[in-house]
């Protein structure tokens, strides 16, 4: 018995338990042993995270695919898990220690601190997983993985060692994004560009051999900089090779102010003659672009800022080398000053010597650490790198050949642009939480990379015996007695970038490098659903690692979804206060309503503007389905044993079978093409408009009438169509559909495992070959086993039934539209004249007369050769239906009203177009504000079009 009121929270809690107890989502179920696998790996959320709207969208779309393919008979593995999130997790635990006034990380030591992090992980690390379950994610939770699980850690070590052996991992001194608060290198993804109002300093650099005078422009060259504190590390000045102002100076030297070092003027395309003075200072150790300029011209790299963001000058051999006598006085003055305090002091000193030409206000983007909030410092340091350029080549070829495709396809351009210009990938992090780099250093700095410490020790002892650093006997003693080799070989303290381990996710989660059967069965995966922001950081790196180690692409399709923005189109952020919490929406409206909203708005390539009202609207949609199911139950609608919908006789029932088949095809094709919004829109229209608004309304006279064969058939068909709805809607709204299936469908088994209404095509030869390798002979792999045995009605069509019921629906719809346009009160009944009706219409009209009169608020239906004078004429499926409205409405008053409304629409159009024609407004206003004006214009244009149509009809009634 269906409860009177739809209560999402009760249903969600109950169904979650049902699914979990029945192992509904477990991959490799016995009943799917011979089925073709379908695999998706979850983009592993940070173990510190909680569900945000991006997670909700991403996992809803994945779940739709998984539930859809599971119902189509596939052996679905949706691989869940979480990422250890090096920086984020370490920060959480360090903050916790500080709040509890407990010893700090460094006071505890590495071993004790890591014990504390694992303790935190055990207590709090499942938050995000439990929230995903609330969303309805149908992952195989028994296979949940963590990027620092023992098996995944073995995979990480093996990959590092093999890439190092192949020369694809190496150590180098390069610039990195350095967080001066966290004291570690960070990835580009962890850097936020923030607009800052600062200054642009124009500095005079004296030309060697000339007497410097601020009044003599020929004695100096002017450079512009936003970071005067780094000028102490300048090793060159760059000008554009085509800039006539400086061509005679190229190759000459300038004297670095305050320092006295001679630095060369070089010609380089990086310098823009249109910006600033056209000359730029080159500081290779403190700017990424300058680093490349320095490499092109062989300029020295002098680092003058230390890892904590302070000037490092006194003990800095690179800085002090080749300084003229007396120049070190400034080193003493500025040494260990914070970089921003040093900036102020250095500018003061430069001004006192006349080296500052002018200072201009300057707004520019400054990189900040997303975790620490501190300004990121380009820092020259020794780090471990991956030769990404080499690994990128096969990853690009795979996309070009179509082995892997992007949806939407335009994201391929973004992928190629980044891959073709890829830089070495810095993979080391100065943290404690993470995969410690499997590298050990000997007493002379010699590096030994190995999978275990014992293996590294063996390599080291052999090497140093050969070099005669130690004797053979000492080597044997060290091998046997750890205490005797203690300190002789030391492990690298750094850990690997989190993206390194997550790059292995599609195969490490399946048990690789062990010879696990899951690797053969479920790799490569079928689809990856992710956001565009991690195409570079995760998607591309999975492609590289998958092809290098597995010799196959990790996934055949990459679906890139858009952003979820607020209802005005603004990006959600805490600072704006416009963040929408998905858990709050689930509490208020239910997970199904949120899921359907996100799917219905997930048009390819278009960001989602999420309004709470939309979620509320789809909660009403769920309530509509609930009430329709109660109506069916109260009218004793059930599917009898052996019922065959293709053999029903009543026109109305054949029509709903026809419409159901049509919708099934639409929904199926849309999901297969990743057009989630089209699939959701199709099922929505079928449930609300076709089934509830029309089929049940048209069936009511039969259901409420005396018992008859037609009533029995209609009862069965109402229940059958409801069950088809539950199947089609299940991937989108799993909780309510599973509940209604259990209560009303009276089937054996879960809806989550029930067959989809439309059979897919059979397995491809490649899939059959793969299955033969993992499950044995393929003789049994024919259509009945490929999917669960089902009645496939999707080819059912009945054009005659559609023509008849469609005519009724179109006629009533158009009459209702005219009544609404003309402001005809519901209590006022109007007449209908069918003019020049065909024989079919003359036959249909009497059959449906009572229904049409009731639903369209008509007093009478009659036939005539032509439409009466003064009647509003409607064209319904090629035939004229006329509404005589003389005396029913005040034509003059109605025309006045319509003219007034058209005037308002014109004013709205003019107002919006005026703003959009203003180039300054379009250029300076926020993106969401401009888009809002476009939407206002389109809405006003659509409103005006409807009003003009109504006005034209009104003329007929004059």
From TrEMBL:
Enzyme class, spelled out: ligase
Motif 'KMSKS' region: positions: 571-575
Entry-linked SUPFAM superfamilies: Anticodon-binding domain of a subclass of class I aminoacyl-tRNA synthetases, Nucleotidylyl transferase, tRNA-binding arm, ValRS/IleRS/LeuRS editing domain
Gene Ontology MF terms in the entry: aminoacyl-tRNA deacylase activity; ATP binding; valine-tRNA ligase activity
Domain Aminoacyl-tRNA synthetase class Ia: 18-610
EC number(s) on file: 6.1.1.9
Cross-referenced Pfam families: Anticodon_1 (PF08264), tRNA-synt_1 (PF00133), Val_tRNA-synt_C (PF10458)
Coiled-coil ranges per UniProt: 895-957
Catalyzed reaction equations: tRNA(Val) + L-valine + ATP = L-valyl-tRNA(Val) + AMP + diphosphate
Domain Methionyl/Valyl/Leucyl/Isoleucyl-tRNA synthetase anticodon-binding stretches: 653-828
Subunit field text: Monomer.
Function in brief: Catalyzes the attachment of valine to tRNA(Val). As ValRS can inadvertently accommodate and process structurally similar amino acids such as threonine, to avoid such errors, it has a 'posttransfer' editing activity that hydrolyzes mischarged Thr-tRNA(Val) in a tRNA-dependent manner.
Database matches in PANTHER family: VALINE--TRNA LIGASE, CHLOROPLASTIC_MITOCHONDRIAL 2 (PTHR11946:SF93), VALYL-TRNA SYNTHETASES (PTHR11946)
Protein name per Swiss-Prot or TrEMBL: Valine--tRNA ligase
